[in-house]
Amino acid sequence: MPLELKPFSWERMIEAVEAVRHRMLKAASALREAKIPYAVIGGNAVAAWVSRVDRAAVRNTQDVDVLVRRSDFAGVQTALENAGFVYRNILNVDCFLDTIDSHPRDAVHIVFAGEKVKPNDLEPTADVTEREIGEGYEVIQLESLVRMKLTSFRIKDRMHLLDLISVALIDPTWPSRFQPELGERLQELLNNPDG
């Protein structure tokens, strides 16, 4: 089936960004009201940190990643479903979709605190206590975010780290904060920030 291209549209681009923002705030509000500890992680956390320095350097992201404790998952599910989200487990990822027909990108993805996302990861994820209060949501602390991005180290994680480097949130002193292999990954990016 051929790809259907829609017309160029500022409105569609703005709607995409607003949908992610709305989803994040809706999920954060539901978790806060249920008194469940959480932290926004991933691309939204990077954007939140970058925006504190230079809003023009913020990169949009397509989904919402939230860190919670596995022991709180039943409460998370209840809180998010009561807020209108639809639970699905997609490829072993616990997701809360906007609607039953939504694309998995239109979701809140759950990541469990203190666990390895993949068995071969060098480090487990952060704990939900490693967070700071943002405007309407709680966001993972910067060093914890960097450690998680260095652990995953996919292309998008490297781009996120480069965004943090570009606004001087990460500087040459940072590699020593992490175990040697993660420090080497960060040093590689610091040595060659333009790829």
Question: What can you tell me about this protein's structure?
Answer:
The protein is of the alpha+beta class and 195 residues long. It has a domain at 12-142: 2-Layer Sandwich (Beta Polymerase, domain 2). The chain contains six helices and seven strands; from the N terminus they run H-E-H-E-H-E-E-E-E-E-H-H-H. The strands form two sheets. A five-stranded mixed sheet has the order 1-2-5-4-3. It is globular. The relative contact order is 0.14.
CATH architecture of one domain: 2-Layer Sandwich
Give the total of beta strands: 7
Q: What amount of the residues lies in strands?
A: 15-25%
Distance between the termini: 36 Å
Overall form? globular
Largest sheet: 5 strands, mixed
Task: Give the fraction of residues assigned to helices.
Answer: 40-55%
Side by side, the strands of the main sheet go: 1-2-5-4-3
Round the Cα radius of gyration to an integer and report it: 17 Å
Query: What would the average pLDDT be, to the nearest integer?
Result: 95
Number of helices: 6
Structural class: alpha+beta
